[in-house]
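Reopening this ticket.

The earlier resolution said the output was attached, but the attachment link was broken on my side. Pasting everything inline this time so it's all in one place.
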Amino acid sequence: MATDNDLLNRTRAAVWHPCTQMKQLEAAPPLAIARGEGAWLIDPDGRRYLDAISSWWVNLFGHCNPRINAAIIDQLGKIEHVMLAGATHVPVVELSERLAALTGLGHAFYGSDGASATEIALKMSAHYWRNSGRPEKNCFISLKNGYHGETVGALSVTDIPLFKDTYAPLLRHSVQVPTPDSRLAEPGETAEAYALRCANALEAHLAENAATTAAFIVEPLVQGAAGMAMYHPAYLTRARELCDRYQVHLIADEIAVGFGRTGTMFACEQALLPSPSGRGAGGEGAGAGSDNAWRFSNHPAESIEFARQLRRNQTEAESLLWRHLRNRNLGCKFRRQHPMPPYTLDFFCQDAAMVIELDGGQHADSERDRRRDEWLAERGLRVLRFWNHEVLQDAESVLQAIWNALHEPARPHPHPLSPGERGDTAFPSQGAGSRGPGAGVPGIRPDFICLSKGITGGYLPLSAVLTTDDVYAAFYGDATARGFLHSHSYTGNPLACRAALAVLDIFEHDQVIAANRAKSIEFTRVLAEVAAHPRVRHFRHLGMIWAFDVADATPGFSTRFHRAALALGVFMRPVGNTVYVMPPYVTSADDMRGLAGAMLRCLDNPAI
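Inline output:
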């Protein structure tokens, strides 16, 4: 049996390790791993190491998970691989259907890794504009300090000098706008205010360059390679609004943050649409700061909760209907929250002279509605009015009513909603925000979503890009060159798809999102002493991600911390002076207490 040293000598002689200066392996050899068990890695001598970073953020449900193992073994007896060009198979179809139901997007295009997904989305966006007669829209925007992969196209929109500078002559120019990383806020400035201030820079760029911009690509809520830079979801909300206004695609790179990492299935779910001016204020002329605004202090708790639920329903209904109006071909371009003093219209189509209003009951006032409808009629505008629950429970009928009003004589829409668009989902309810953006929960919907890492639970390489029906339709036609001629040999591999389906089954059957919320609270309490350590700055937390910066870190800190933690039975890889924890979801509270103790010992050592 090969010894530990034999394996290390052989790996140095034969393997070129990723993201590694190979000479450094002489002083800091890689960890030799023989097997895995749950959240633990085990070396050839039986020593155990907590996988505190989920093996580069991919492992969700532990190493050698019996359910994922069984799914792959079952698939091995059927078909291990078949090319997806000219053939299809059950696992890839089922996975595509379930991802569509979760995201509200469809027609999944598969690759092998996260960088491949980025390449696919960028190419698809630029090609869409070319097929739409606007080939000049081929430039891209990303965030400062953003990371989207290390292939040439992905590196072009990445802003990490260590990875990018060497290859600058090979890269296509892109523009980086200020990051909403909340650590950069001014003293006294809230994370939300700073995020919106950064969004102003995005708006300024789009105002000047929208005609040549294809897409804005963003890591939702957490910029991983930037040191787990976290920001307020208001930035995503504003980015979606600006991309709509300036006709630019929004690409959500959920490669690292998807599949429950941030506390919701996808991070984009946390970007709430803002309430229109005057919502909940009782009628006309009552905007933010109005004397008629809600005052909760003197209301019973049940009344407060009832009002909050109505507000949530209003936001969810507006978000869902807005996605449908944007992405379903109704033959009319609607605008959202269109100001027409003294009113703000929920949805407005100038070409059809039509207004759509939603109401939830908390301020339903027939006399006020009559006055508003008369006022709009005097201006030649038709009004369609729906209750929130109608949109949330039967969006198909609402859209058919809008279609009928736009197209007389009335006829069925030629493309009924898919299950994902209607809000149907394979997942039972796990509380607010537990399902995907297509499932009728709050959140913005991007034009493209890039998925990888956790999609197979850390088992097999797989990535996917899903997009809107509008994008898909732009490639559909008789000319081969109009199609999306991009491929990978292992596209849609059946074994990888079965692993991904097993991962989705575990999410469903084990109520993972809800369970993680409880773990997140408990683990944050466990890490309280770490957060209070005098060397720690900017302790931050989102979902199942924890991070902090070390104030007095000197060059070589990340390597020293990594080696010291390893000696204490914890596998971690700090990013610069940022220490982060992103454990598998099967990590226990006892595991986390051991991790906290190891980090404290490392922080207490001034030589690290």
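Reporter confirms the inline version is readable. Residues 20 and 284 are 62 Å apart (CA to CA). Residues 273-297, 417-441 have pLDDT under 50 and may be disordered.
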